[in-house]
Amino acid sequence: MSTILVASGIALLASILFTPYLIRLFTRQGFGQEIRQEGPHSHQSKRGTPTMGGVAILLATWSGYLVAHLTVTRHGITASALLVLLLTTVLGVVGFLDDLIKVRRQRNLGLNKTAKLVGQLVAAVLFGILAMGFRDSDGISPASIHLSFVRDVAVVSFGVVGFVVFSYLLVSAWSNAVNLADGLDGLAAGAAAMVLVTYVIVSFWQYTQDCTLLPVPGCYTVRDPLDVAVVAAAAVGGCIGFLWWNAPPAKIFMGDTGSLAIGGLLAGLSVVTRTELLLVVIGGLFVVEAMSVVIQVAVFRTTRRRPFRMAPFHHHFELAGWPETTVIIRFWLLAAICCALGAGVFYSEWLTAAGG
DSSP characters for 248-264? Predict the structure, then answer.
């Protein structure tokens, strides 16, 4: 537990203290956010706000994790944690390039769809392949070829190739979902922090009920659950520290650097904790935001009518007259409800499996 607290505390301090430096640096460099012309008119006042603040979240997460290992923990860096962090970082680099093109060319479009998808493909395929290796002394790898809800669903097996394809779909879906939700000050950072707190709880509980340490009914067969909790805790600190400066009115935006990285982080955590389908519940807010875009496009192409005033979903309420802060707070509440529901499902499954 002390490792988790140190990781989150160091990441929180690093993010709070480093973000103002990024704000000054990016302001001097002219790295200001371009705003969509078709978006809510109130957003035009945000034009020029520094972006690429996701750099602070990434550096804070790495700092919290590494300092915790250097000062507290007695075990070394694990394969599961390192793979999740590398997936997060590679997607952060893809997002950084996207943001850099936007600010250099002063437009709201960065990398084209093909380039972005190729970057996600490379990150996901490398993660999927490597996650099937690095077996520990008990033969457990960071990932499983089975589809998972709260634990592996044995009757649904992908095979190695199928798992790599599934990894790409998972990483692409979650990185894009978080990216779509990152449209209001603090919305994505706050919701992501709640999901990550839930994953701290999930992975730490898996550690306390690890089958290799405590082979009892309801135990979990996962690799490195404690170290995965440390990664999630460090990311929580990074997101909350960044939220201090990103809360409305935002002094800096996370940009695709942060949103793609956080989406990849969530996907990676779901894989190494064997909870890919449970993440749909825990991260329900991001699912709703992504589905609103899918529905908007599908309905418009078939009927030439739009079910929402604008997609993603949060803009629909803005255009309906809700103040931005009202939308943010209510969406945070929805995110908290989804996280509580997901944690409840996770715990109730354990009670059933343990015979409680």
Answer: SSPSS--HHHHHHHHHH
